[in-house]
Design a protein that fits this description.
Helices cover 50% and strands 8% of the residues. The protein is mainly α. It is globular, with a radius of gyration of 27 Å.
């Protein structure tokens, strides 16, 4: 945070201060000390097999459940984002798959620790933060009794990775207390949501200069929706990116519903449709517009047609020439300028033809392909990725741990594909822990406590790292002293009382 000085004098000027805030909360009521023994974890770690590819891939049963979850996510989006199907909302909630895997609703007691003037942007800085937390809580960290019980810690990917490096560096050289072998790390799902959202934006953004030639890209849709421009090298806040994805998802699902039902208008369809028929139509949407098999079929047909055309074999450089293969799209019909919304959804999604130009250095052949649709393929893949984000977000809010676990396995692969290598590596650790390393009692404790509910209301669960971000906001923006009164002594005093202070007035009428 910035400590700003109103008037500069000798030795006093604006400064950026780097510190750390932390929060503690009691574990869910069925967590017992005998289930959290360090010796049990070390023994399980020594005998655990390495992570295998089958541990990341869905089993047939998990794949079926995950497909049901994605289908229900599409149904939830259609029913919750428009008033046309509002009457079906209770029925949608009743048919939610995996409800038996939910954590019982309870209010989480949250206690903020004093702000620490410690820069955690290093491995030793993270170690100092952990030591300061336990010291503030009055633990005698040097005793066997303290290190014999596991201490769950939740945080963002970078903090957890640094603490894991610290454990690796000290393994075999320090006692159990100073080697931090009694720490067990849980995920910060909010940072995973941000990584997934930014990955989807970058993957499906498209060419910003293509304009109407790329009507299925998020860059084109962002312009059509008259939203602020987005630059991939400097992405906007998380909510701005997520809202663009979810808005596009909702509009696409409504258009897909029109296509599968062949109705004159959605208003007429909504007046007469039953819930059973709506679910059947959503299943058709999944099979026709979301299934990766649709994309694979289109791509295979295009590849087969290219092979049937018997294109001349390119002359390789060592054969005395050069060759290149380029694929371009030629619009079938003119599409309105992206600054103006299209007259209809069909107009914005006009299907382009694909031409293949083969140049062998001495001749060129322009061949029109009759199968394959790149725009349609990309939109199918976008719908799949957007539904995964929707399912992940709703599973967190509804604290459905089984649904979260099935999404996490897929996210490890999605992170790898979108270039988020550190998050992919972190999820490999998490899947390995859940599958082989954590004993079952410890696994249950971690799953029941990786989300918190400060309000105690349904569908109000938040990741632990998001809770910490909220507290950081209140400390840095609302309750930070101004001018010469700003100091770490003030922050250390005010930060533990965040949840005890009354809400700040939001307008003059509230004072």
């Amino acid at each position: 945070m910035m400590f700003r000085i109103a008037e500069q004098i000798l030795g006093r000027k604006d400064s950026q201060e780097n510190g750390t805030c932390a929060t503690i909360f009691p574990l869910y009521r069925d967590a017992r000390e005998e289930d959290m023994q360090t010796s049990d974890l070390l023994e399980s770690f020594s005998s655990a097999p390495p992570l295998a590819a089958k541990d990341i891939r869905h089993t047939p049963a998990e794949a079926d459940l995950f497909h049901e979850s994605l289908e229900h996510a599409a149904l939830r989006d259609l029913v919750s984002r428009t008033e046309l199907f509002a009457r079906f909302r209770p029925q949608v909630d009743a048919c939610l798959p995996g409800k038996y895997e939910q954590i019982p609703i309870h209010q989480t007691e949250v206690h903020a620790l004093p702000a620490m003037n410690i820069d955690e942007s290093s491995i030793t800085g993270n170690a100092d933060v952990v030591d300061s937390m336990f010291k503030e809580l009055g633990f005698d960290v040097g005793t066997t009794k303290f290190s014999g019980i596991l201490r769950p810690i939740f945080g963002d990917q970078l903090s957890i990775a640094r603490l894991r490096s610290l454990i690796t560096n000290r393994a075999g050289h320090e006692g159990s207390a100073h080697s931090y072998s009694h720490l067990v790390f849980g995920p910060g799902f909010f940072h995973h949501q941000m990584a997934l959202t930014h990955g989807i934006i970058e993957t499906h953004w498209g060419d910003t200069h293509a304009g109407t030639r790329s009507p299925g890209s998020l860059s084109f849709l962002n312009t059509v929706l008259d939203r602020k421009p987005i630059v991939l090298t400097s992405l906007p806040p998380y909510r701005t990116c997520r809202d663009l994805i979810f808005t596009t998802l909702s509009a696409s699902l409504l258009h897909c519903l029109e296509l599968v039902t062949k109705c004159e208008s959605l208003e007429d369809y909504a007046r007469t449709v039953s819930f059973t028929q709506l679910r059947a139509d959503v299943s058709k949407i999944m099979d026709r517009f979301v299934s990766p098999n649709t994309v694979a079929t289109l791509r295979n047909n295009r590849a087969n047609e290219v092979a049937r055309l018997q294109l001349p074999r390119p002359v390789l450089p060592f054969e005395g020439g050069h060759a290149s293969l380029t694929i371009t799209t030629v619009p079938q019909a003119s599409v309105p300028h992206p600054t103006a919304p299209p007259a209809s959804l069909n107009e914005a999604a006009s299907v382009p033809k694909t031409s293949v130009s083969v140049c062998t250095g001495v001749q060129a052949h322009d061949l029109q392909l009759t199968v394959g649709d790149v725009v349609h393929e990309n939109m199918c893949l976008f719908l799949r990725d957007a539904l995964v984000l929707r399912e992940f977000t709703d599973a967190i809010k509804g604290v459905s741990s089984g649904r979260i676990l099935r999404v996490l396995k897929l996210l490890a692969l999605m992170y790898r594909g979108s270039g988020r290598m550190k998050y992919a590596h972190e999820l490999l650790h998490l899947v390995h822990n859940l599958t082989h390393i954590w004993p079952k009692p410890l696994r249950d404790v971690m799953i029941k406590n990786w989300l918190v509910n400060p309000s105690g209301k349904p569908n109000s669960w938040v990741p632990v790292d998001l809770l910490q971000e909220h507290i950081n906001f209140w400390i840095k923006v609302i309750y930070k002293a101004q001018g010469g009164n700003a100091s770490w002594e003030w922050l250390e005093m005010i930060s533990p009382t965040i949840y005890d202070l009354p809400p700040t007035p939001r307008s003059g009428n509230d004072v």
